[in-house]
Fold each of these.
Amino acid sequence: MNKHLVELVELSKIDKSVDSFTPQIEAAQNKIAREQNKVDEVTQKIESLQKIIEDNSGKIVTYEEQITTIDEQLKDIQKKNKIITSEREMKALSMEEELAKEKLTFANEEIERLGKVNNVKKADTEELEATLEELSVSVEDIKKVAQKELSSIEKQKEGLYKKRVDSVSTIDQKILAFYEKVRKWAGNTAVVAVKKQACYGCYMKINDKTYSEVIRGEEIIGCPHCGRILYLDRETSEVEA
């Protein structure tokens, strides 16, 4: 087989090995992301509950201020009742007192209702905070495991990168440029074997002339259908024979 073709086949195998780590890296990162999403969701729920509690607490304060104002209003009405001089004034004060008492009742009922809502929301918050604590521990554990996996992968990739640098340094630059050009669109199938007289990149059968050139292996041959670099898989060919 042509020396340059041998080098390209070897380089292609190195690139495949490097890229084979991508799914493992993504899997490790996805594990962390999934758990972190759970933490984020619970955190958002807690923040939402705390906002409701805060808003309700603000409303309670407002109603308490209203109650203080209404109490003063009722005291003032009682004072006026002692000095009224006409039935008309009495009716007006009576209506004012009735309206004030209705407002007072409403304010007290709202304070009670909002207090109950806050108690439920606080209980929900405490439950979520306990869940958040468990999830946070889980995330840290997963991060530690994933980090070990990623560190191991990085070490293996470093070894392959060094091997790739050594391999690239011996390849003719024009041939390397051609390989990289094909690899841009073909990825790890830039260099593929020919089996049963078919390109194992596009799986199309190649003509006899091209197949003969691939068998000879004297030149770098591209698939006439897809343009991938072809080489003869000797081991498979011997088995098929």
Note: The first strand starts at residue 191 and ends at 195.
Amino acid sequence: MSTDFERHNEEVALVWDSYRKGRPIRVPIIFGINVRFTMDILEANPRKMTFEDYFSNPQLMLERQLEHFYWVRHHIPQDAEMGLPSSGWSVFVDFQNVYEAAWFGCPICFCPGEVPDTIRSLTPTTKR
């Protein structure tokens, strides 16, 4: 994708400024794209990292997030800053959809091609 990111980012700033002032020049479009979206895109995940890799190693989680963010910011046109971030990268501990259940002791299951899931560990006889 060949994009003039500076020009794009200037336009995005105008779109959001007009929107916030109640006089939108068009409807802003953004996508909530997480690491799951790019996990199976070879160009975005050249090491073919799995969710088990991602969850098992903090360094790999950091690297995979940066690969993901870089790819999205260079390939998915939307009303968000594109190109390298002007204020640095924002990364986080990413528990996907297992946060609460794993905290309560449910084992995490890494099924191929799927987001992590948990296996129920609390039953009527074990819940106490």
Note: The longest strand covers residues 108-109.
Amino acid sequence: MSTVAEIESALEKLPIEDQRTIAAWLDAKLAAGGFDPTVEEAWAEEIQRRLADLDSSRVKGVPAEQVFARARRILGR
């Protein structure tokens, strides 16, 4: 068994609150390294493009409750 698989297995056995604590720690640890500026720039451009599409009515927004309902169906919840 690989180290990653061992860690995953151990994490799955922890109570959910401990899993959340570890997830928050890992998120903070990874974010501390900073972000790739080219990725940030690409996302900024994508956001502007999507906003322009919405503003010009080229695309229609989907209400959040529909999005979440679909996500719950997909996840089987």
Note: The mean pLDDT is 92.
Amino acid sequence: MTIADDGPAGGGHTELAWFLVFACWLLATVSALGALFFSEVMELPPCTLCWYQRIFMFPLVILLPLGLFPFDPRVVRYALPLAAIGWAISVFQVLLVWGVIPESIQPCTKGVPCSEVQIEWLGFVNIPFLSFLAFTTMVALLVAAHYRSKP
């Protein structure tokens, strides 16, 4: 049965939803490993907002595969709020780094400033932006999986 073949029980939709959740799990795993690489190998201390984003990213690495084997489309119900809250925190941090949000609102009063850019590639890709991209993609994948899992 192919992804395009719906079959008698809507199997094509289920296969595509499974693939979308699997892609989301891969992205969450790569993101979690990347965060650990930056902090443990490169010894870049995470700021407070980075810790909050990790709180919502790391559980996805365990939660998503639990819904894949066997596939349970309800996994989206539990994973999407984690990804959406992580996305909101990442948006706040990106706006803080870009100077859209004034520094007086910064939640990072101790330790590493949340607006500090420790790594920057191509003049605009930094760690907070990578987190924003990861959470945005995960939210999109989970929303698509939700709609694809319906018969």
Note: Strands lie at 120-121, 125-126.
